[in-house]
Amino acid sequence: MAKTAAERQRKRREKLKMENNRVDYEEHKRRDRERKKLAKLLMLPKEKENLQTRTREAVRQHRMNNSQIRVVDGTVVGGTPYKSMSSLRKAKSRVMKALPKSPRKRASLVKLMACDILGTYIAAPKIRTNQEIEEAVISFYENENISRMMPGKADFITLKDQLGNKYTKQKRHQVATITETYKCFIEDNPSADISKSKFTSLRPRWVLLSSEMSHNVCGCKYHSNVILLLEALHRRYPDLIPLYSKEDFIAHCVCDINDEDCMRNGCERCSDGKLFKEIYENKAPADNEFSWYQWEDTNGFLQKDEIQSAHWKQRQVTIYTIMITYRNKKLSYVIISDFLSHEKTAVAAFTSTILDIITDKFPTVRTVDVWTDGPSSQYKNKYIFALLPRLQDLHAVRIRWNYFATSHGKGPNDGIGGNAKRIVHRLIMSRSAVVPDSQSFANALRSSGTSINVVELTEDDIKEKCKMLDVETLWSGLQTFPGTISTHCAQSVGNGMVQLKFFTTDPSPRHVPAKYTKEAVEVSRKSDENWNCTLCNWKYGDKADPKISEEWIMCASCQSWFHESCGQQNGILDDCDQFLCKKCLQEQ
């Protein structure tokens, strides 16, 4: 029988290995090495990968053949009822064909069969983190103080549950770094035993890092500028200025972070950055200059490829979003309206409607805390302050209206609006709904099966609500409340008085008449000179004043008063919504 090519090569190598042919054998190996080296150079990447796989398998097989105990796939062959390795491999092949194709399912099934046949058990992997701690971490990431919900209809992520059903989650953005978030969690949960790496791995997919924040998410200009400045300082002086940390930075700026005077810039020792200058002023070389980025306001922006006729001829709809929290329960509401004027009358009607819903669903409620941002055209103005006693008497609940700090008003309400718009947009794009007006928008949103509660208010309904509240009489002749711009909490305290606070737990609130008319101003006025605009010298409440409809602001240092527009020309508003005039700034 003729020999195969492999057998002939094997016989040739054996002859070359003999002592008298040793030189020829070494030459044969040298030429073989060069041939293989050249072949590797001409190989494609996939061919090289296959060669490495074959080499590893050959080495493994060689080591197994040279071992004293014959092992196949981790099982000792000796002592088996199979007479040869061939029959054992055939049996293994038949079993492998019957197993699932998925490697994970195959491994799980083999482990289960081994436990049943051998009568053993496989120890479960050690759980390093308590399930309760993991749930607490995930809930902490979704806290409004840790992450901010994105408002856009396209700001969502699609996930699958354990049954393979798809569902969507609105994206959120962290407002701090992972390190700061981890520190905050440990401070709130001192008994939790969890490492930073494990804490990071538990971050939900819909909670994005602060570094991934897109341009359309509103951020605080003041805080962002401080972070940018400190990062630049750290790059220039890494040993002197630590990388930005909220707690460390505040601790170097004030005497005591728990002292109200220090945090409100009223302490003589640390106000206006005195303590920070004392620590760092003489440590950094004065001749070194560096630059950093800074956010600024701009009034102009571009739009790409906007069709003019489509832009101006589209009908619009008002979407007013509300999140009701009651005893750890959360209810999402949207009010859909064809009334497009987003000002005091709409806010009054929407607020009264929501209070009706709250008192109907939760009849035992006695206090309602309202949280909104502070635009002067909608929420933080004399009209809402005057409306509080009327709403409180009408709905028989105590109402406390709280305002977020500047540029910190984004919350779950914005996510509700984005979710509602996305649902209706999908129905429109799939031709499942036609939405020409507010009524069809509300019907389409209801038909989607969403958990968002939909309330529809027409323009006539809003006018009827305002008529019931008698806002026309209530708001006639109102004057601007003193210190409106620095107010962060307002509530009715009875006897026709409204209480205004700089913050919710302010121990020294101001009390002003709810019907703050010119007559009330004359009665409550302290002295005429304190109520003149320092810049234009118009007297507060003067009907001839061309700026009589504007808000008034007071300098936190010299107690002088300005029209809001005059104050913008003659001073600045700091991060705490405290106004400082130009004269006081120069003195500091």
From TrEMBL:
It comes from the Eukaryota. Gene3D superfamilies: Zinc/RING finger domain, C3HC4 (zinc finger). One of its GO terms (molecular function) is zinc ion binding. Residues 532-585 form the Zinc finger PHD-type domain. Residues 16-29 have a biased composition (Basic and acidic residues). Residues 1-32 are annotated as: Disordered. InterPro entries: Zinc_finger_PHD-type_CS, Znf_FYVE_PHD, Znf_PHD, Znf_RING/FYVE/PHD. This is Zinc finger PHD-type domain-containing protein. It comes from Lottia gigantea (Giant owl limpet).
